[in-house]
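Give me the 3D structure for Putative nuclease HARBI1.
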Amino acid sequence: MQVKPLGKPCHGGAPGDPWPSAMAVPIAVLDCDLLLYGRGHRTLDRFKLEDVTDEYLVSTYGFPRQFIYYLVDLLGATLSRPTQRSRAISPETQILAALGFYTSGSFQTRMGDAIGISQASMSRCVANVTEALVERASQFIHFPEDEATVQSLKDDFYGLAGMPGVLGVVDCTHVAIKAPNAEDLSYVNRKGLHSLNCLMVCDARGVLLSAETHWPGSLPDCTVLEQAALTSQFETELRKDGWLLGDSSFLLRTWLMTPLHIPETPAEYRYNMAHSATHNIIERTFRTIRSRFRCLDGSRGTLQYSPEKSSHIILACCVLHNISLEHGLDVWSSPATGHMEQPEEEYEQMESVDSEACRIRQELLLTHFS
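Predicted structure for Putative nuclease HARBI1 (370 residues):
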């Protein structure tokens, strides 16, 4: 293809050379692509997973090749929905863009350049992949139902510190978001920052069994739990054979064991120690999720989305967290990083007025810790 000059000589060209040869091919290719296919066509398919190393994929997008292939198989049909654009961005590219954002917390120009899309396109990719993952949340985040799996769940917890009957550990964590508007104070937490208060339950390996990511940051943990679907689930499908473990920000319930405020007997001290060691799993899980998904840890600033969209991004990261564990990516393998300072709960230490819950905890003390 012959390239003809369209204007004055470029700066830096040799005398008499109206168009430096080094510039001819790129400009010709770009012009042809724009004329034939529209903006961006030349870069949509230029990035191939098979062309880069696993080390590059992990360092840039946070996950190895086989994990990304799995996501392409899982989400491909959803991400290939009809588009008004003449050339849709491939599911593979959309997933890479979203993983890049989740794990770095920013729409970096170099990341978009690597896969050949603009920052605006990256933003659309994040939205598409996020919704596709949220649609599948119940597939990957749920309590086990069959008896054998439930028993294995309790056995794993018992092996940690000797606490019997544990079906999960529950706690809340805050994720910083941008202020929805100047008038709405419902998302302002006790530190004066805008956040979502996320209620989560995990098993002994750090697998999430429940994740409610939409609660306004102004709500204390006990209020979040009171209003949560989790409470309805445990009270309407009451499990007589086990309970969750929660810290002192929650009230003691028949299905939620909390520590004793002032332990006095050796049995009470042993109970509290076992409770603390077991409940610590949820804190480790929170740290791991933040270190793996840097968009949540506050180090790159707050999530620059509405509360609803921010909630969906958090839930999408929770789904990816569980999928990564299914693929053998160890929950404790990522180093801890700095994260948003969590608001300290200001609550009165109080014992539950639920006499049946008190009886169950006392029986637990006498049976297993005396």
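Residues 142-317+353-369 form one domain. Let me know if you want a second pass.
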